[in-house]
Amino acid sequence: MYSESSQDEQSTETAGISKAVTGIKGLDEILMGGLPAGSLTLINGGPGTGKTILGSEFIYRGAIESEPGIILSFEEKAESLKNNALTLGWDFRKLEKENKLSIIQARIDPQAVLSGKFDFSGLLAIIDSEAARINAKRILIDGQDVILRLLDDLVKERNELQSFKNWLDDNQITTVITIKKYSGDFNRYEFLDYLCDCVIQLDQRVHNQIATRRLRVLKCRGSDFGRNEYPFAIYLNGVQIIPVTTASLQHNGLGESVSSGIEKLDELLAGGYRRNSCNLISGTSGTGKTTLVCSFVSSICQKGEKALYIDFEESQKAVVMGMRSPGINLQDHINNGLLKFHPVMPEALGVEEHLVRVFHLIEEFNPGFLVVDAISACRRMGDKHAAFDYILRLINYCKQRGITTLLTNLADNEREGREITGIDLSSVIDTVILLRNVEFQGRLNRLLLILKSRARAHSSQCHLFKITDNGIKIGGVYSGAESRG
User: Fold this and answer.
1) The pTM is what?
2) Where residue 296 falls among pLDDT bands split at 50, 70, 90?
3) What structural domains does the chain harbor?
């Protein structure tokens, strides 16, 4: 599910364990309610994995729901934190004025640390004073490894952290600390894994030149939690996580018929497409896939319904101009706000970022119909598994919202007769229409065959069709001999 966790109550109880709701999309679902309230949580990961943003969002979501918070930063300046937060729509300055947030920029004298004159008592006194002033319920200590590295003594590090943990236990303030973790440095802060009640590990990997951030909960004391790795993205207003394994099959069944925009095709489909269905149009290049899809899009927009068109191969302008030849006017529907294009290169983003952006568009635009042209291009998001992951999760999300989907697939002549989607998704497709070009007696004939249409007594014969200057015209049954080039 892609919905922000309910914040009607910022503190919840799961199996007797009090939880602090993070308010971060998907994270509360993974944590079965939130972080352990009044406890210490560790977020570790390498540079650029999102540690500061994840911790800051925990503070921000609490502050706007009347749980004031403190950010103690060992690395970033306070002004830098505030400016960076604004890029995500978080107004830290406003929260400070309302006494819902306090940002402390820790200035540590390295000489005092090296001489052995430094301990955490001074910082704890500052935190204690600010916590009392704003009645803080949450604390983020960002970049604690900076001071630990200055101590350069494992015994001192553990003693100082234990004293800090004791203070937290006495004050029962839900606290998150962030630590950088480098390769070859894996066990340096291993003791923190045992000291903290919850440990969240972030990383960033590059596969086929596409970077993906991932989150994994290593432990959450006293509570169940999702144990898998979860890809996530940072987009618009914060961290966006769409847990793959928690997606449930709770969508409704197929709905009423909706016209394909072509009368003869409706007849062959025994009524047209079904609402809340997933439909695939597959064929080699030049068989008319996009024209068939756009005929449907134009038809439903003429009835005042909205459609979102995701295009992985052409720009909006190219599609609109290309459809003028067969007499399909898409520009009017765009101007009327009934049709929205989302053209994007598949390799520009990872699966998670593609999904997050599309889900945001769907929530914002609220279409009843969605087109993906073409799913074969999704392999360029990384590999076949990435394409499968993207399309399957998109289909499930659309079905949960009652959105009818139309997909196109660029088929390969050499793969004819094999799995029809090219990414092993045939079982979740409700209707499959195959388009082919066949040469016969010196002419190229376009053929249409309905391979399947779930719960429908559809035609099982090949029909000729033409793309005219007035749309697609489907003719009679094809009976000529085939010549395959």
Assistant:
1) 0.83
2) very high
3) 11-241 (3.40.50.300), 257-477 (3.40.50.300)
